[in-house]
Amino acid sequence: MSPGMIDEYIGRLERELRRRGLDDPRILAEAREHLADAVEEGRQRGLSVDEAEQEALERFGAPAIVAAAHADEERSRMTGFSGALGRAWQRKWWILVPTVAAAIATSVASNYLPTRYRADVRMIVVSNAQSAVALTSDAADFERSIEALLSRNLLEAVIRDTGLYREKLDRVRMSDLIEQMRGDISITSLTPAPDGPPWPPRAVRAFEIGFAAADPEQAKQVTERLASVVIDENLKQEAKRVGSATRSLELQIEEVREELVKQEKKMKDLRAAAGGRALSPADLIPYDAVTEQYKALSARLIDAKVAEAVKRRQIGEQFRIIDAATVPETPDGPGRLRVTLIGALIGLLLGLALVMFRRPSSGVPPTLAEA
Amino acid sequence: MNAETLKGHLDMLLLAAVRAEPLHGYAIVERLRVRSAGAFDLSEGTLYPALHRLERAALLASRWSEVNGRRRRVYQLTRKGERALAQRQGEWREFSRAVEAVVEGPA
After folding, report:
1. What is the ipTM for the molecules in this complex?
2. Closest among B69, B62, B79 to B24, alpha carbons compared
3. Nearest to A59 among B44, B48, B72 (CB)
4. What pTM does this model have?
5. What digits encode the pLDDT tens for the residues A187-210?
6. Domain covering B3-103, topology
7. Nearest alpha-carbon partner for A167 in A182, A155, A180, A154
8. Which of residues 78-97 of A touch B (CB under 8 A)?
């Protein structure tokens, strides 16, 4: 007599099921009950315990065949989207554990990230200004045109003047530092919040320049410098643009003046040749024409210069600071929640990959199920 | 009887076995064997995956219950199972009549 025969069978069945990625205690419990019933029935027919157990096991089928039949059902169930969901649910621990572990790990690691502070300067574009920057309608374009004012050379000057990245200056290339700095600079075009007070008004373009640094004092200092660089640079570029109109007028006047000198000399020669006689009107025509042209250009130049002076005054007020930078009191980052969520996401993907690679029934020949 | 032939009709047979009363797995096998006079002979262990599938399809319902002092999983036909069985039965009658007419008919 071997009381272990049924137990041994159940153990083998369990292993065969596991091998196919199945782990359902109900399958084993039902098998055990079934075999017990079969043995009992065999005993009633007068079989010995050994014979009854032997017969029960034979009728039930080899562990591999029974497990394969279960795996087969499972496989046909686990196809398509609901199948994928079911598979994921069946192996939820494979997904949950890496997700939670990665979230905890990144959450802990994020505490070691340096705290960052961001200072902001809020500016408005004065509406009567006629600059290319102010006229750009699209917010993203506007942000880009402000960004374009911050050239490499200017940023390098800011880095040197403010002592920013002092500890990295001799180790890291300047071009890399400038790239990093661009990442720490934020330029945001402001629009009224849908549920907040209507600020800025529609006609007013407002924007913020911000800078994030580990030291709040430095964040403020660099932000102020960046704001003044943006104001100065915009002025310079606009002055160049406005000045070009009078410049071309001045060139034209120069040409006409030379022509005038030539004509005057010609007149002088003619007068000398005439010997005190009055010149004919025909001789006077070219001289008069040049004189008229010169007068007209001079008048236009005066107009242009007046206009330029007016414009220069306007340019002087193109960007106006309405909120100066202050030393930030609360850290701006790192976004610990965001870092943790990213970590959790990575863990989730890892878990899903694990589940996908450990598909149940892998490596089991399907013919076993048909045997 | 050939296992493949049986497999095609296994669902109908299992549903029919529990039509009269709820039964546990071993009793279902017994019923099939007795009613078919031993013609249906397949690995008894492979009936359970089919029972589980029918339960997931809501044609059967099951619960643990105490029978003769032992815990057993008892299967019972659901309303949906009854309808499915009636339909299968109709189809089967039609099919077997047609097969019989052809196979057993006058040459």
Report:
1. 0.87
2. B62
3. B44
4. 0.44
5. 888 876 666 666 666 667 788 899
6. Arc Repressor Mutant, subunit A (1.10.10)
7. A180
8. none
